[in-house]
Records
---
Amino acid sequence: MEQPKNIWYITLLLTCIAGYCDTLTFVAADNLFSAHVTGNFIVFAYQIINGDDINAWVKLLTFPVFIISVMIGGYIASKSTVKYKILFWEGCILLLSGVFAVVFHYLHITSTWSLYFTAMIIVFAMGLQNAFGKLFSKETHGPTTMMTGNVTQASLDIGILLKTKFTDLSSKESFKKQFVTIGGFLTGCFLGAIAGKKWGLIPVLLPGVIMVLCYLKNSHVKTETKL
C-alpha cells in the first residue's frame, strides 16, 4: 500500500466496502445508512411525515455513534505509528457486528433492538473509515464513503475532456481516479443489496475479514503524514 500504484488498490477496496455496508444496512436494517449517515436525516423526516414507523427516531442515534467513532479514530491515529491501524479496528468491529448478527439469527432473536444494535456497530466501523479518509487523504483518490464530491469532479473532468477533445492529460488521469472510486462504491452497493436481501446483516463478516487480512499483510507500513 505504500507505493503510489497501490493507492488504486486501497481506494477500490474502501469504496467497495463502504458501498457494501451502506446498502447492506439500508436493505436489512430498516433503511438505515451506515456510511453516508447524513442520509438518515432524509429517512427520518420521511418516516416521521408518513407516520408509518414508530422507530424512526432510531435513525438519529447514528449521529452520536458516528461522532464518537470519528473521535476515537482520531485518537487511535494519534497514538499509533502504523498507518492502517484505524482500518484494522474497522475490520475487527465489522467482524464483531457479523458475530452478533450470526448469534441473533441462530438464537432466533428477531426483535427490533437486536437489528438496530448490530447496525449501530456497523455505523461505528464506518465512522472509523471516515476518520481515516480525513486523516490520510493522500492514501485514496478521494472520499470513500460519500460519492457526491467524486461525481462532481468526474463531471468537471468530462466537461474539460469534451472541450479539449480528450487531449487534456490531467483531466484524463483525474477521471480515471474518479471512475475507480465511483465504480468501486457502485459495485459494493450491488453486492450489499444482494447479500442483505438474502442473508440480512450476517454478510458484514466478509468485509471484516478482508479488512483484517489486508492490515496483517501491510502492518509494517508506518505513519508518515496525517492531513
---
Amino acid sequence: MEHSPIIIDIKNVTKRFGKSATGKTALNNVSLEIPLGQIVCLLGPNGSGKTTLLKTVAGLLEPTEGSISIMGIDLAHNPSMARSHIGWMPAEDRSGFYGRLTGRQNIEFFASLHNLLKPEIDRLLGNLSLQLDMHDELDQTMLKVSGGARQKIALTRALLHNPSVLLLDEPMRNLDPHTILRFRRLLKDHLARVHKRTVLLSTHQLEEARRIADVIVILNNGEIIKNIEARDLQKELQHMSVEEFYLKTVDAEEKK
C-alpha cells in the first residue's frame, strides 16, 4: 500500500519561554508526522501547549530545540517559502482585522497582499459565502459582527492564497450548531478530501473532534500523551463516551 507524503513533520520540538534554565517549558520533545490530506485535532486542557504548537508550526514562534518542515521545506532554514504554504487562523478575538472596515473590505485588503485579482477574490468570496452562509455578514464592519461571523471571515482569510496546510486554533469557537456543521463539511469533505489540504487544528469540542479528525492528539503539560487514529478511537468509544475517553487519558497522565 502506497503511503501519503508527510506534509507537516515535527521532530523533537521543545519550546521554552524565558531563560532556558529557569523558563517555562511550553512544549517538551514533541514529534508528529501529518500526511497529505489528513485532519489532525489537538485536544488538551488549557495551557497544555496546543496554541504554542500551532504557532510554532506556523513560524510565529521559534522552537528552542528540534525542527519543523512543511512540505519538505525546513521552517528554520527557509521560513518564507515554508510559510507560503500555510494558512493560519488564530484564536484571538481581534485577529488582526481592521474594525472599521467591513468583512469584505478586510478580505479584499488581505487578498491584495497576495496579489490576487478582483475576479479571483469575488469567486472565493462567492464560494465561501455559500458554504459558510455569510452573505450579509461580509458587509458589516468588523466592530459589529458576531464572534461566529468573525470566525468565518478569519477562515476565509486563511484560505486566500490557496495554502496546502491549514493551521486553525479553535476554529469552531463561538459557532452555532448549524455553522459548525458547515465548517465540518467544508474542512472534511471539501478541503481535506477533495483538495487534499492538510489540516492541524485545536479544539475544546470533543464530539466535534471525533466527527472531523483522522487522528486525535491529546497534549498535557507540553507533551503528547495520546496519538490515536479515528478507527482505533471508535473501538475505544464502544465502551465509553469521547468525554470519558479524554478525561481518562488526561487523568491517567496526571497521576503518573
---
Amino acid sequence: MDKKVKAQILAVRDTGLTNMFDTRAVQRIAFDMDFFELVTFLEEHKDKYVRFILTGEE
C-alpha cells in the first residue's frame, strides 16, 4: 500500500459516511471523491485493506 492509497483511506474514514468494513460503500465514496487508486486497490487487495483497517498496519 502506497502513501497515496493510505491517505485516501483515511480521508474516506474522516467523512464518517460509512462503516469502513462496508467495502462497496467505501468504493462508492472513494469514486465520488475521485480516489480512483483506492477504488482499484479495493478490487485488487481487499485483504491488505482489511488488515489496515483492523490493525493499522500496511
